[in-house]
C-alpha cells in the first residue's frame, strides 16, 4: 500500500487521507458512502458532496487521524478536545484523542497506537491485532483516582525502546462503553501484547524479548 497522503478538495474544504494511519474502522464509508466511495478505481474521496461541517464531523469520527481537513472557506481549523481521552478498544489498539506529541514523530489530535505487539507500522496500529487473534478486554477494572485539575493540554507519548508507551500529561482512560477507568498525568501502557495487567505495562516485554 502506498503511504503517500491523498488529497481531494472542493471550493470550501480540503480532505487529506493518510493510508499509513488508517485502521479500516470504516466509519467514513458507512456514514457517507457518497463522500468516501469504497471499491472504486480512481478518485474515491468527494468532498464536494458534503459541507465543510459534515467533513469536519467525518474527520472527528476517524479514530486513527487518517482523515484530516483544511477549511478553505475561512472556517476554523480542528482544535484539540477539552478533555484528553484514551479509549481502550476491545481486542484492539489504544485510541488517543488530545493535544498529542508522539515520540518526536508528529503532533496530532487523534491516533490509534498498537498494543498487540504485532503491528508492522509501530507505534501505530495496522490492524494486525485481528490477524493474530489478539485478546484484551476493553472493560478493565476501574481504578479510583481524583479528578484532574486540568483535563486538556499537551500530552507527550514516548516509546521506551523494546518497552511500553510512556504517556505524560493529563489523560482520562475510558473503556469501550465510556466508563472512566483512570484519570492521571502519567502512565505506562503495554505495547508488547503480553502484559497480564492490560492496558498497563507489567514488565512482560522483557520476559518475552519484545523488540521495537
Q: Explain this structure to me?
A:
- With 212 residues, the chain is mainly β.
- The chain folds into two domains: 66 residues, Alpha-Beta Plaits, CATH 3.30.70; 124 residues, CDGSH iron-sulfur domain, mitoNEET-type (Ribosomal Protein L9, domain 1), CATH 3.40.5.90.
- Helices cover 11% and strands 29% of the residues.
- It is built from four helices and nine strands, in the order ββααββββαβββα.
- Strands 4, 5, 6, 7, 8 and 9 form a six-stranded mixed β-sheet that branches.
- A hairpin with a 3-residue loop joins β1 and β2.
- The longest helix is centred in the first third of the chain and has 9 residues.
- It starts with 5 loop residues before the first strand and ends with a helix.
User: Mind telling me the CATH class of the largest domain?
Assistant: Alpha Beta
Find the structural class using helix and strand composition.
mainly beta
The first-to-last residue Cα distance is 22 Å
Helix content: 10-25%
Q: CATH homologous superfamily of the largest domain, by name? A: CDGSH iron-sulfur domain, mitoNEET-type
> Which second-level CATH architecture of the largest domain applies?
3-Layer(aba) Sandwich
The Cα radius of gyration reads 18 Å
Amino acid at each position: 500500500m502506498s503511504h503517500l497522503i491523498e488529497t481531494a478538495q472542493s471550493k470550501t474544504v480540503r480532505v487529506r487521507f493518510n493510508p499509513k494511519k488508517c485502521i479500516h474502522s470504516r466509519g467514513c464509508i458507512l456514514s457517507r458512502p457518497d463522500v468516501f466511495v469504497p471499491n472504486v478505481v480512481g478518485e474515491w474521496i468527494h468532498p464536494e458532496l458534503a459541507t465543510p461541517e459534515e467533513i469536519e464531523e467525518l474527520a472527528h469520527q476517524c479514530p486513527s487521524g487518517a482523515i484530516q481537513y483544511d477549511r478553505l472557506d475561512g472556517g476554523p481549523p480542528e482544535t484539540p478536545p477539552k478533555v484528553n481521552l484514551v479509549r481502550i478498544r476491545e481486542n484492539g489498539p489504544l485510541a488517543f484523542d488530545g493535544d498529542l506529541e508522539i515520540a518526536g514523530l508528529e503532533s496530532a489530535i487523534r491516533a490509534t497506537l498498537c498494543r498487540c505487539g504485532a503491528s508492522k507500522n509501530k507505534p501505530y496500529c495496522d490492524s494486525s491485532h485481528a490477524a493474530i487473534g489478539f485478546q484484551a478486554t476493553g472493560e478493565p477494572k476501574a481504578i479510583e483516582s481524583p479528578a484532574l485539575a486540568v483535563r486538556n493540554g499537551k500530552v507527550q507519548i514516548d516509546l521506551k525502546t523494546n518497552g511500553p508507551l510512556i504517556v505524560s500529561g493529563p489523560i482520562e482512560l475510558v473503556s469501550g462503553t465510556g466508563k472512566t477507568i483512570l484519570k492521571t498525568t502519567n502512565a505506562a501502557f503495554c505495547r508488547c501484547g503480553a502484559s497480564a495487567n492490560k492496558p498497563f505495562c507489567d514488565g512482560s516485554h522483557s520476559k518475552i524479548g519484545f523488540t521495537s
